[in-house]
Amino acid sequence: MDYLWAFLVGGTICLIGQLLIDLTKLSPARILVSFVVAGVFLSAIGWYGALVEFAGAGATVPLTGFGYLLAEGVKKAVQTDGLIGALTGGFTAASCGLATVMILGLLVSLLFKRGDRVS
Amino acid sequence: MGKFIQGGTVQMFNAPSVKSYAAAVGKKEGEGPLADCFDYIGEDVTLGTDSWEKAENMLQKYAFSIALQKGSLAQTDIAMIFAGDLLNQCTASGYAVRDFDIPFVGLYGACSTMAESLALASVFIENGLGGNIAALTSSHFCAAERQFRFPLNYGGQRTPTSQWTATAAGCAVVSSREMPPYINAVTFGKIKDYGITDVNNMGAAMSGAAYDTISTHLSNTSKSIDDFDYIVTGDLGLVGSELLYDLFDKDRVNIQKKHKDCGLMLYDLKGQDIHAGGSGCGCAASVLCGYFLQEIAQGKIKNILFTATGALMSPTMIQQGESIPGIAHAIHISSE
Amino acid sequence: MQITKKDYAELTKKRSPNTKLPKTLTKAFLIGGAICVIGQGFLNLYTRLGFDKIDAGALTSVSLMFIAAVLTGFRIYDKIARHAGAGSIVPITGFANSVVSPALEFKTEGYILGVGAKMFVIAGPVILYGITASVIYGVILYVFGR
User: Fold this and answer.
1) C-alpha angle with apex B281: B280 to B282, nearest 5 degrees?
2) Among B139, B169, C66, C110, which one is least packed by beta carbons within 10 Å?
């Protein structure tokens, strides 16, 4: 059952992204920014947390889930560290993902040949 | 001599010859419908170099050297090179030509550069400056993509109106009247900007300029569409071509029956997943130097109005919210 | 004949084909959904291996990004993305692709100014505004949360 909900919710979030690309001619970069900010906002008002409970990876894997991660991190950090937590929480929560993606970027650039594009 | 320039048009009284010409293309272009017309087809897009930019240098070198060979010319026979490309600071041309020891004039006309360079070369020769002048132009899909859009392996989706920058180069050597093809007249176009801001719809951004230059040329030279076998545009693609028909429709001129677009000829649009057609300086250059000039030299085609179009924008100006200025230059190339 | 920008814009609109929405939306939904299902698979796997919720989530992201990075290196990710559109841009795999692809592309300009400086050319704004939003949220929590 959790797979079905992950599929439906995750698919729907991507579908919203596609609608934005096709109808508004927004560049992917703008859409990604709005998804992350929307994720933070929806988590702040408590909606995204509920969606994560319900859809699991369907809600955490799309980029809105990155916003959720940031918001949750900040919430926890503010609770434990006070105002300084507002500054540390986001990066602390995102640190694993960001470090991973940097290392991957570096490794791929070292190990792979630059590619052509067929279409 | 009675030479003058009026409304951008220069009528040639001595009609210079395109003495020699060559086209060098990449792999994908070499798999397209015009494959047999090209003098050099690369095995891949790198052409044995380690960067796209260097590959584009190679394309220009090949096009130039093959054009010299075909015309039995030595480098010392070339008085000047007019060359251009899409890269920042015109580097595809500058670096391609640096080994040649030939006076070099770098041009930027975006995708109109083939017409721009050929027209300038023709005007020089027409005015009795003598010798041979090479017009050389190239573009490279990967080099253009990373400069104007995204890294090659970024998972962006191309829109239906987007066009494919050709990996190709063309070279035409102009000399005084000798044998066909002849350059009968040229018109340097004005910049036309109808407020198009979608960088994925270049055809639309350039169509207005093509319309303006073609109509200006026809009226300045007192010719009509019917005097030509083909009105050839550079890279309007599907969208730009239809827009061109609409614009001429308003003048009650049916240009569609005479129209050919290099961007629609270079690829098999469906089979090669090209979306709205080819584009880039190399597109018009390779189709002109690979196909049309050959056909005209053999007398199979008598008269064409070659009108290469360019979108004179940069990512910087687009990000500043500016629209895309279009340009087109027209050349009447004839077999008589 | 004179033509106004307005007329021109109308003609352009008429002549420019739109994306085939049913097709692009379906593909984005299916492929995006499928990536999330793979994510769910990893999440369940790591949970079963005894990781807590946060670590399992983090490992899931790492696994998905690793796959996306390798697919980018082998030039497969952009081929999938051609069909998937937002379906492969929006998931975290798309985030990985947006970092790895410029890193790979700009290695010709060296590892400092090429790979290093260009790596976040697409993802940079996402991080900037994501963090900004989270800081604002944190300040609001601090001010009103007590």
Assistant:
1) 90
2) C110
User: Using CA atoms, how far apart are residues B283 and B269, in angstroms rounded to an integer?
Assistant: 14
Higher pLDDT, B94 or C18: B94
Give A54-87 pLDDT, tens digit per residue: 999 999 999 999 999 999 999 999 999 999 999 9
Q: Specify the number of domains making up chain C.
A: 1
Residues C15, B50: C-beta atoms closer than 8 Å = no
Chain C residues within 8 A of A3 when measuring between CB atoms: 37, 40-41
> What band does C40 get if pLDDT is binned at 50, 70 and 90?
very high
A115–B contact, CB cutoff 8 A: yes
* Structural domain that includes position C25: 21-144
Q: Which residues of C touch B153 (CB under 8 A)?
A: 72, 75, 77-78, 97, 100-101, 104-105
Distance CA B49, CA B272 (A): 25
- Per the CB < 8 A criterion, the answer to whether B314 and B149 are in contact is no
Please give the residue that has the higher pLDDT: either B91 or B7. B91
Q: Please give the domain boundaries of chain B with CATH numbers for all domains.
A: 9-175 (3.40.47.40), 182-334 (3.40.47.40)
Mean pLDDT, range B316-331, rounded to an integer: 95
Residue B169 buriedness (CB in 10 A; 0-12 / 13-18 / 19+): buried
- Confirm whether C1 is domain-assigned: no
**Predicted local confidence at residue C91, as pLDDT:** 96
Chain pair A-C, CB pairs under 8 angstroms? 281
**Radius of gyration, alpha carbons of chain A:** 17
Q: Please compute the mean of the pLDDT values over residues B155-173 and round it to a whole number.
A: 93
Portion 30-89 of A in contact with C at CB < 8 A: 31-33, 35-37, 39-41, 43-44, 56-58, 60-67, 69-71, 73-75, 77-78, 82-83, 85-87, 89
Query: pLDDT band for position B2 (50/70/90)?
Result: very low
So what's the pLDDT on residue B336?
Answer: 83
Angle in degrees, 0-180, between the axes of helices C92-105 and A63-81, rounded to the nearest 10: 100
ipTM over 0.85: yes
Q: What is the DSSP letter of B216?
A: H
Is the pLDDT at C75 greater than 80? The verdict is: yes
Contact status, residue B310 vs residue B280, Cβ threshold 8 Å = no
Question: Given an 8 Å threshold on Cβ–Cβ distance, is A28 in contact with B156?
Answer: yes
